[in-house]
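INTERNAL AUDIT FORM
Audit reference: QA-55
Scope: verify that the stored structure record matches its stored sequence.
Auditor: D.O.
Record contents follow.
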Amino acid sequence: MRPIWTGAIGFGLVNIPVKIYSATETSNLDLDMLDKKDHAHIKYQRVNENTGKEVPWGNIVKGYKIDNEYVVLDEKDFEAVAAEKTKTISISDFVKEDEISSLYYETPYYLEPDKSGTRPYALLLEALKKTQKVAVSTFVMRNKEALAILRPDNNVIVLNKIRFAQEIRDPNQLNLPKNTDVKPAELKMAITLVDQLTGKFDISKYKDNYNDELLKIIEAKAKGKKIKAPEMKVVHGGTKDLMEQLKASLEVKRKKSA
């Protein structure tokens, strides 16, 4: 793996040199965009809207429009915003992880210590484990300040980017059910179904089968076979009675277990 960021964790007055690595990878098939007529590759070009000519990367700059005029920014301008933050993951607080809603979670990364940071890295890792806390931190990646938590995962410190509060939409904009009566008998049956389906979480038993199925279709089409789309399966019977649907769900589970 290649690091995507190099800097240090600021833990009080302790500096822990680290490298950031992506903890995830895509499982999607690498599909190309083609012209329907001749299957030629579609290419994206960076075009000057005035001349219509393609602009090379070296000639592209970033700018912000004020009073119909652009103020152009360079790398030094971005560094001047907070030069001390560009290479530091600054820990500000320690909190319990369950206090953070899953709505806020974004991308996970692995933190690897530099040779000179092995001991303080191990110290922070062990402290997080013992206290069962996570460290709320800020850092700058790709010229943008990010919020994150540092949490232990076995023998590695994971940096999880999390969203700022202003990035979360207000759910009050949704048309949610209000004052809907939940019948005690239906609730009891629903809880029974939940209990029946409850087990220990094992991520390894969940597989992304979509790409495998898509690849089978691609291979079949390559051999000239016609593909017939399957019909949508009905999840439950025709009854609209909620209690009957719950009972049927319990029966299905019992039959599978038998």
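Auditor finding: record pair retrieved intact. The domain at 5-24+79-165 is CATH 2.40.290.10 (Ku70; Chain: A; Domain 2).
Action required: none
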